[in-house]
Amino acid sequence: MKNLTTFLVALLLLLASKTVVFAQPGLPTFFDRSMEQMITEDNLPNAVIAVVQDEEIAFMKGYSNIEEQNPVDGEQSLFRVGSVSKIFTWTAVMQLAEKGDVDLDADIQQYLDFDLPKTINGLKTEVSPITLRHLLTHTSGFEDVLDGLFTFSPQPPLREYLTSHIPIRIYPAGEVMAYSNYNPALAGYIIERVSGMPFEEYIKHHIFAPLQMTSSSFAQPLSSELSERMVTAYRQVNGEFLPAKFEYMPAPAGGLSTTAADMAKFMHFLLNNAGNTESQVLNPQTKNQMLSPAFSYHPLLGGMTHGFKEFSLNGQQVIFHGGSTNIFDAGFYLLPETNTGIFIAYSGGSYDGHIKILYDYLQNFHPVNEEDTPGRPMIAAAVQPTLNQLKGEYHQSRRIESTSDKSINMMMGVMQIDITDDEMLEVKMMGQTLLFKEVQPGIYESTTLRPFYPFGPMQYLIAEEDHMGRLMLVTDGPMTYIKMPWHATAAFAAMLFVPMLALALGTIIFYVVRAFFRRLSQKYVKPDDRSFTARTVMVLHAFLFVFMLWLMALTLNPDPVYRLPLSAFGEVGFANTLLSIMPWLIAATTLAMIYFSIQTWNDKLRKKAARIYYLVYTLFSLGLLWLFWYYNLVG
Question: In sequence order, what DSSP letters do the residues of 39-79 get, joined into one string?
Fold first, then answer.
């Protein structure tokens, strides 16, 4: 009897902790140790993990790294999950498709009450329509939209957000994968239009309720009951944990707040045959369709299912989605072949913490076995460039073309390729340097596997071309790298910008110093009025340019907690408004300098050396003006 009592107590404690022993010995210890290591190395204030296998929560635990904070609990503590929210939007789309309320391959314009662009880059020729399947696979062809994506106050109604941020189309639909937050936001509005319910309510009643996900919500702000359970997000700055505000996002793209226990229920639903309650969400056939590959450039590469990213590594298919706000990060991973799901969330870290744990799990529990791992077909690449043709600067397909944020393209995910002496591709991106060897013309294999790329192992780069004939290098996931023409590279922008800065500073220093010494010597001679005006305009241009850079440093300085300027959250002050005017003032002085440069040269109003300097300064100011025009700061 005593033994039976002991057994029952142990069983109850086991169930209360939601921890059971894996079929793979040592796995709970592995995840616990990995989480502790990540928290220590990345100075995380709080984190949570849930692992499911078969029909059980195999491991779930919360971690707190701040003494005064309430302990993190997998059942109770809510985390923001950023783009992991999208998988619920896509699940709702598949629900409506299953019921026949939407057609995945129909023009989405029929579901909307406002018009989307019908042409590429505003040109006259109309192209094929955008479908829900294009939204699901990030092949809609839209440019990226960053304005209004994050705010510290409630977002506008979904339709208002969408209509005030309509992106241009920069690729034909169905051809180029380019990750987009506008895609799920648009899908969310279609859900509203078709169902007749607000997006947040639709998800609550048609997904959360059947799966008993009672601690999950897309509401922003949260209800008072859930708000009390939301963990306080922190980031460690100079040894001190600084708290962060609640970040608002367009709900279908990133508005979810949830618990590890609720995400375990969703993983269980996706991995197992649906019971009576779960069948209200999706039937098994639709669920299998949603988790099956829908778009990939090449059989060697991971791509997109209907809403999830996917890749294969160590003989395991991984279906997943990562997510980030500016303070929270989360990873959601399914391994169907072993019926395993992993959910990790934390604040104050970076996007790659959960990725490293996933890779370590695969390396430790599913190591590479060449005999058991079938080779993937080495189908010829569509394009077969020479190595010299590959050299250059590549930008992400997720790019901005029509707004003043276009210059971000030069800073976000740039890939630089050089060729080594032994004919390897030296690829520099995201702070990493990787080497790729050519295994077939147009197909390049990494010599080192590193868990840093957010969309897959990046084992291969494969050459393609876009609709404009530009060379593309494609790899795992919804991101493509397009070779930039010389005038669109960061290197060319620097060639114009850096000398212009040197000339501006030199001009200011020279004329300030000269004016000082002339005043001391009292040998001031009044110049010709036209020469004086020309010189004044050049000095004014120099002051405006340097002042603009000072304003940029002031307003674009990243906040230490969010790692973005506060202007990215709509916190716009007088300095931001003034900064937007500066390119126009600089443009006006540039046009004036063109006139005076021609005049002083023709009339020989100044010494030859002065005229040459003025001409050189004017030419670089023209180059600066071109940069302003190209990156949508003027014009």
Answer: HHHHT-SEEEEEEEETTEEEEEEEEE--TTSPPP-TTT-BE
- Cβ density class 451-485: b for 16+ within 10 Å, e for less: bebbbbbbbbbbbbebeeeebbbbbbbbbbbbbbe
CA dist list (Å): 215 to 177, 218, 404:
34, 11, 39
CB-CB contact of 509 with 502 (8 Å): no
Distance linking the first and last C-alpha atoms of the chain = 86
* Pairing, β 432-440 against β 480-483: unpaired
CB 199 within 8 A of CB 226: no
Structure tokens at 578: 């003034």
Angle made by CA atoms 357, 358, 364, in degrees to the nearest 5: 85
10-residue stretch averages of pLDDT, the chain, 635 residues long: 38 36 70 97 96 91 84 96 98 97 98 95 85 98 94 96 96 96 98 98 97 97 96 95 96 98 97 67 94 94 96 92 97 95 97 94 85 66 93 96 92 93 94 94 90 89 95 94 95 95 95 79 62 88 96 90 89 87 96 90 75 93 96 91
Strands (E), 173-213: none
SS3 of 229-253: the string is CECCCEEEECCEEEECCCCECCHHH
CA dihedral 476, 481, 482, 486 (to 10 degrees): -160
Reading the block at residue 444, the tokens are 């390049």
Rounded distance, CA 207 to CA 332, Å? Answer: 17
Q: Which long-range contacts (CB under 8 A, 24 or more apart) does 441-445 make?
A: 441/380, 441/381, 441/384, 442/380, 442/381, 442/382, 442/383, 442/384, 442/385, 443/300, 443/378, 443/380, 443/381
Q: Are 184 and 74 in contact (CB under 8 A)?
A: no
Is 87 in contact with 256 (CB distance < 8 Å)? no
Which pTM was predicted?
A: 0.91
What secondary structure letter does DSSP report for 107? B
Q: With contact defined as beta carbons under 8 Å apart, do 148 and 166 qualify?
A: no
Residues in the chain: 635
Contact 439/447 with Cβ under 8 angstroms? no
Domains of the chain: 80-365 (3.40.710.10), 387-484 (2.40.128), 490-630 (no CATH)
C-alpha triplet 462, 299, 388: angle, nearest 5°? 10
CB 206 within 8 A of CB 109: no
Across 103-137, b (16+ Cβ under 10 Å) vs e yields: ebeebbeebbeeebbeebeeeeeebebbbbbbbbb
